[in-house]
Write a structure and sequence with these properties.
Chain lengths: 322, 309
């Protein structure tokens, strides 16, 4: 249900449409020319810390405004108050009104959201039951566990029954039983026709939820679509491997040996540390054994051998396992 | 639902949720309360010594009779020279006028030494700041503003709604504090309260608008507001010449000056207060309040919650 879109869509009927969206954080480019179109269903947003996931979600939820390009939710700009009606957002932040209970939190935000006063109790009972917080609704937010606060955020996102749900790291802090229930809830919401964008590092849960993924790296969409297509594209995605030695004596000879491998596209010696090599490759699974073999042949002690961008590596591993 | 409906609904929601839940920085609150206590104690001690008048006042560099003695002497003179009707009448008139002035001097001394100086120049900005800066500033600093921004109501309704929720607190605290000081000062103080409640209320609204803007739209708003209160209001407000017109207190003083003149008391020669009729002073204060409210609505509408995480 995803299209990494540059075609001309009909924005009025598309749940989420991002067109050439860029966002700067000061002098740092947080998102770079993102085009994306989501249809009803669950889509996972994957990427390392700092890859731009939360920035993209904040833009979609109307908390940030794009520096270029635009976003539409059923044809409405999410920055406007009308757009907020379309989005239920559970952010990856943990700031609450500490002296309010879960129920009071939902009740007051319901009032602010413009829900009719007499309908609020029923709506709150329903969302509390959905997220499994009915029995602890009177607990003050400052006394809630991280998992309870996460579920309170999801309940808050469901208050207005919006057609689009943006859930940033919803599984963080939730116990295994809670995760199972949350997966179930999201699948039910999907069946009800909702469009859901979920970011998470919990790939087990993501795989249970959806086969649709969008992968971000350094503010760009590296890959988007069904998981099997993403895997194929990721195979060709360049990664950097850090290789550090005990001493820097043989570094020149080793660098030459490594570079002789056809799948190594680049190699550089780190300026800050002479015993550290940074190796660029598109096929880390092939290059890794080669690096180990070289270190054995030249009888050198390795201090470190890892893919620098750790989170995408985890993502890839998980995707390859599937 | 159109904009107007949504705006009204947002305004109403802000009042329902926040009217009786004003957030006040504990530190600032206790500083404000502490200053009220200290100044009240000083005013009370002056009242106890019966010094809110010119009875004991002597012209500068003069020794001998004070104001009260002089009046007594004039009254005695008019009795002694009672057979000379013309001279006696004049002396009696001067003594009577001076006596009347002496009765009103409690109000004048209190206004000049407390209301014009320490109250308008320091206490009122501080008290208004206590409630106004925290209005949306506490949400901003506590990073809970985000929850309001996810709701389908115009940001202008959040801003104006929250401003309305702090206004009763600001007015209660500033007028209540002034009332306490006035009561401590006795008859002259109570007269000053009856005469000056309006300029103080208007100045409070203006200060509230300025400090609320700072809290909602600027980082480290409490520090900026304190700096404004001390530099602009306290220092500039007491400067000679037209510089003092930059302070909000100047317009409150102008109003008070005119009101005092209407009851026959000229509070301070010079100072430029006579140049601003009451209507102009009111217009200036309400103009400043409106400018900051509109500026706040505009800037608040553009705020991105960058770095919330």
């Amino acid at each position: 249900m995803i299209r990494n879109s540059s075609s001309i869509p009909s924005p009025d009927v598309v749940p989420l449409w991002c067109s050439k969206v860029s966002k700067w954080h000061g002098s740092f480019l947080g998102l770079n020319d993102i085009s994306l179109e989501l249809r009803p269903g669950i889509t996972a947003l994957l990427g390392a810390n700092g890859s731009g996931k939360s920035t993209l979600m904040n833009l979609i939820a109307g908390q940030l405004y794009p520096d270029s390009g635009f976003i539409r939710i059923f044809g409405i700009d999410p920055w406007t108050w009308e757009g907020k009606r379309m989005v239920g957002y559970s952010p990856d932040l943990d700031y609450f009104y500490p002296s309010w209970s879960i129920r009071v939190f939902l009740d007051r935000l319901g009032v602010i959201a413009g829900i009719e006063r007499k309908k609020i109790p029923n709506i709150i009972n329903k969302v509390l039951s959905l997220v499994g917080l009915s029995s602890v609704q009177s607990t003050l937010l400052k006394r809630c566990s991280l998992g309870m606060r996460q579920r309170a955020k999801i309940a808050h996102a469901l208050l207005l029954e919006p057609p689009l749900l943006i859930l940033d790291e919803p599984f963080r802090g939730i116990d295994p039983v809670g995760r199972r229930d949350l997966v179930q809830l999201l699948l039910e919401l999907q069946s009800a026709g909702k469009t859901i964008l979920v970011s998470s590092h919990e790939l087990d849960e993501i795989e249970k939820l959806t086969s649709q993924v969008v992968m971000l790296r350094s503010g760009r969409i590296v890959s988007a679509g069904p998981i099997y297509l993403v895997k194929e594209r990721l195979i060709d995605n360049p990664v950097e491997i850090a290789m550090e030695f005990q001493d820097a004596d043989k570094i020149r000879i080793i660098a030459q040996a490594i570079f002789s491998h056809p799948d190594v596209s680049g190699i550089q010696c780190a300026e800050e540390k002479l015993s550290l090599l940074k190796i660029q490759t598109r096929k880390p699974s092939v290059v890794f054994p080669h690096l180990i073999q070289i270190s054995i042949i030249h009888n050198i002690i390795l201090r470190r051998l890892e893919i620098v961008d750790q989170a995408p590596a985890e993502v890839m591993e998980s995707l390859f396992q599937g | 639902m159109g904009f107007v409906n949504s705006f009204t609904s947002g305004l109403n929601a802000m009042l329902v949720v926040y009217l009786f839940r004003a957030r006040v920085g504990r530190g600032l609150f206790w500083v404000s309360a502490g200053f009220l206590l200290i100044v009240s104690a000083v005013v009370l001690s002056v009242s106890y010594k019966n010094q809110w008048n010119y009875k004991a006042w002597k012209p500068r560099a003069q020794v001998g009779l004070n104001f009260s003695n002089t009046i007594e002497m004039l009254e005695a003179n008019s009795l002694i020279i009672g057979h000379n009707s013309g001279y006696s009448a004049i002396t009696s008139a001067v003594a009577g006028t001076s006596s009347g002035f002496l009765q009103l001097s409690g109000f004048q001394v209190f206004t000049k030494n407390v209301v014009f100086s320490v109250f308008l120049g320091f206490l009122l900005p501080l008290w208004c700041l206590t409630f106004s800066v925290e209005g949306l500033g506490s949400e901003r600093e506590g990073k809970t503003l985000f929850w309001l921004f996810t709701k389908p109501i115009p940001r202008s309704s959040i801003y104006l709604g929250r401003f309305l929720t702090i206004l009763p607190w600001v007015l209660s605290w500033s007028l209540g504090g002034f009332f306490v000081l006035s009561v401590c000062a006795g008859e002259g103080g109570i007269f000053a309260f009856k005469l000056f409640w309006l300029p103080i209320a208007l100045a409070s609204i203006t200060y509230a608008s300025v400090f609320f803007f700072m809290g909602a739209c600027l980082p480290r708003a409490s520090l900026i507001a304190l700096a404004y209160a001390f530099v602009v209001e306290t220092l500039l407000g007491s400067m000679p010449g037209s510089l003092k017109q930059l302070s909000i207190a100047f317009y409150a003083r102008s109003m008070m000056f005119q009101q005092s003149a209407e009851v026959g008391v000229i509070l301070e020669q010079g100072g430029g207060y006579a140049d601003f009729p009451q209507s102009t002073a009111i217009m200036f204060m309400m103009g400043i309040a409106s400018i900051f409210l509109f500026a706040g609505v505009f800037v608040f509408g553009k705020i991105e919650l960058r770095g919330q995480r």
